Amino acid sequence: MFHKLKPLTLSLTLLLAACASPTPSGPRTLTVMTHDSFAITESVLKEFETVNNVTVQVLKSGDAGALLNTALLNKESPLADVMYGVDNTLLSRALDNNLFEPYDSPALAAIPAELKLDTENRALPVNYGDVCLNYDKAYFAEKGLTPPTNVSELTKPEYKSLLVTEDPATSSTGLAFMLGTWAAFGDDGFRQFWADLRANDVKVAPDWETAYYTEFSGSSGKGPRPIVVSYASSPPAEVIFASTPLDDAPTASVTGAKSCFRQIEFVGILKGTKNRDLAEAWVDFMLDKTFQEDMPLNMFVYPALPSATLPEAFVKYSGTVESPIILDPRTIAEKRDALIKEWTEIVVK
After folding, report:
1. pLDDT score for 346
2. CA-wise closest residue to 175 among 300, 91, 298, 99
3. Residue 134: in which H helix or E strand, if any?
4. Neighbouring residues of 91: CB distance < 8 A, sequence distance ≥ 6
5. pTM greater than 0.85 (yes/no)
6. Burial class (CB in 10 A: 0-12, 13-18, 19+), 20
7. CATH class of 129-261+320-347
């Protein structure tokens, strides 16, 4: 009996061994959810893919607000392995809903403490930027009108119908600007400022792309409004991407005290990923010098890594923010929804 069964046993053993043995296969796939503004130099991305034998699928999901909402709606069956683009105005929502798995990346050692807003390292800081007013220089020169020097001046009659901002309910840029006005003016001042701004015919766009490229009159835009809520780093983009060479930026930022809100963007490994090792590699990659130095001319943000070298044009044409508004994430969490509701009642309804 034993000898008759032995060949069958041997055959089964070989079959199981064959099934368990690794077989040649192509690269694995890593899916990265991002906002629509994510951009990376092709050669830099290719280097990551080659080193890690992976194909990176970038899943763009709208503005940061829409990105987070999509991730929350699909929390039980995540659409990706990693998410990049949630910022400090929305961070508490991501953390309170346990979207991310902790990861103590070795690269964090080189990142400044003031950018690390999650003590459990579920969300790791990648970059920052300052949300400020931008204006079309040519418009103000032609009209003989002095541009505003701070946010509070926007309610003056001479700036009627000139401003376009983003809806804080749908845009992280708009949310950052709204939070900045609350931090600058307080509860009563916030309500009065936005009531006055509505009376001064402020235009509200659903997202930054619409505000900047459709409503704004700057060289990249085609709209009628010469003031837009954007970034202190937007003017360099106008020079670098100009169809004809420019000696100076056609736009400028309002960077006086309490005029800009510091926005920090994070990357996190989505809970439930089946590619944890690749997800960790991607996070390390985003905090590494190669990616950090690639960011400024692709996404026009400042790298979180202090040793990353900034391009000359980026430094030359960016506005210097005197004292950005910085709010604790818990304060944002406590005030965000109530302020959005109040803003909507004042400005939209």
Report:
1. 97
2. 91
3. strand 124-136
4. 117, 118, 123, 266, 329, 332
5. no
6. exposed
7. alpha beta
